[in-house]
C-alpha cells in the first residue's frame, strides 16, 4: 500500500504556502478548524505585514484579528500567534527551533504541528497525524490506536524513518482526494486490492470516479481503472 501511494502521489507536498519556518509554523496554527486553501488566501497579506516573531509578539490585536477573521476562531488564533511570537523571542532568540521537544513547548503547538514544521521546514522526518491520517491508517488496518501519539509511534514502526514526512503527505493527499470520511471512492481507488475496508464506499468504477477530487484526478483514475 505504501509503494502504491508513492506511485499515485509522487509529488505530494505540504499544501500550506510558506517560505520560512516561521511562516509555516504560523500557517499550521491558523489551519485549525479550516482548510489549507483558506489559510493560503490569508497568509500573503499576513506574512507581508508580520515578518518576524517580534512582529507577532508586538502586534496590535485588533489589526491582527482582522487579518485572521476569515479563518474562523480568529480571536483564539490571534492569541496563539501573539503568544507564539512572544515565546520565540523570549526563549529562542526569535527563531523557530528545529527540535520536537522545543517546538511542543510553544503555545498552540502540539506534536502534529511540530512534525509538520520539522518535516517541511527542517527536513527532519516526522509523521503528521491529522484527522485524515488517523482515519486512513485505521481504515487500512495499520493500527487500531485512536490516540494520535500512539498512532504516530505505531506507524513509525512500520515505515522507515527517512520516509515519514512523505508518507504523511501521501496519506493526507489520499484522504482528501479519494478515501473520504463518509463516502470513500472505493471503486476508483488504486489501493483497493490491498484495502481491508474495500466496500465502505461505492465499488463501481464509474460511480466512485465521480467522488475523486483534485488536480491528480486523471492520474488516479488511470491507475485505478479496470484492466
UniProtKB/TrEMBL annotation:
Sample GO molecular function, one term: class I DNA-(apurinic or apyrimidinic site) endonuclease activity
Binding site for [4Fe-4S] cluster: 179, 186, 189, 195
HhH-GPD domain span: 30-177
Sorted UniProt keywords: 4Fe-4S, DNA damage, DNA repair, DNA-binding, Endonuclease, Glycosidase, Hydrolase, Iron, Iron-sulfur, Lyase, Metal-binding, Nuclease
Cofactor note as given: Binds 1 [4Fe-4S] cluster.
EC nos: 4.2.99.18
UniProt-listed PROSITE patterns: ENDONUCLEASE_III_1, ENDONUCLEASE_III_2
Transferase in keyword set: no
Cofactor needs: [4Fe-4S] cluster
DNA repair keyword on record: yes
NCBIfam families reported in the protein's UniProt record: nth (TIGR01083)
Recorded family membership: Belongs to the Nth/MutY family.
PANTHER family: A/G-SPECIFIC ADENINE GLYCOSYLASE/ENDONUCLEASE III, ENDONUCLEASE III
Job description of the protein: DNA repair enzyme that has both DNA N-glycosylase activity and AP-lyase activity. The DNA N-glycosylase activity releases various damaged pyrimidines from DNA by cleaving the N-glycosidic bond, leaving an AP (apurinic/apyrimidinic) site. The AP-lyase activity cleaves the phosphodiester bond 3' to the AP site by a beta-elimination, leaving a 3'-terminal unsaturated sugar and a product with a terminal 5'-phosphate.
Name of this chain's protein: Endonuclease III
Gene name linked to the record: nth
Amino acid at each position: 500500500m505504501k509503494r502504491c501511494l508513492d506511485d499515485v502521489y509522487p509529488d505530494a507536498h505540504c499544501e500550506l504556502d510558506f517560505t520560512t519556518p516561521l511562516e509555516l509554523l504560523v500557517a499550521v496554527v491558523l489551519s485549525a478548524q479550516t482548510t489549507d486553501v483558506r489559510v493560503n488566501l490569508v497568509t500573503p497579506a499576513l506574512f507581508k505585514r508580520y515578518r518576524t516573531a517580534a512582529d507577532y509578539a508586538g502586534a496590535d490585536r485588533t489589526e491582527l484579528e482582522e487579518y485572521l477573521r476569515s479563518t474562523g476562531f480568529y480571536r483564539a488564533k490571534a492569541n496563539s500567534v501573539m503568544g507564539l511570537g512572544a515565546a520565540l523571542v523570549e526563549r529562542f532568540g526569535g527563531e523557530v527551533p528545529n527540535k520536537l521537544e522545543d517546538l511542543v513547548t510553544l503555545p498552540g503547538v502540539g506534536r502534529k504541528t511540530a512534525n509538520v514544521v520539522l518535516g517541511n521546514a527542517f527536513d527532519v522526518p516526522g509523521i503528521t497525524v491529522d484527522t485524515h491520517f488517523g482515519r486512513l491508517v485505521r481504515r487500512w488496518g495499520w493500527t487500531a490506536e485512536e490516540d494520535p501519539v500512539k498512532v504516530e509511534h505505531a506507524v513509525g514502526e512500520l515505515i522507515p524513518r527517512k520516509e515519514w514526512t512523505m508518507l504523511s503527505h501521501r496519506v493526507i493527499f489520499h484522504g482528501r482526494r479519494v478515501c473520504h470520511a463518509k463516502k470513500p471512492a472505493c471503486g476508483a481507488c488504486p489501493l483497493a486490492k490491498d484495502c481491508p475496508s474495500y466496500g465502505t464506499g461505492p465499488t463501481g468504477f464509474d460511480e466512485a470516479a465521480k467522488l475523486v477530487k483534485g488536480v491528480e484526478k486523471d492520474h488516479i483514475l488511470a491507475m485505478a481503472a479496470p484492466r
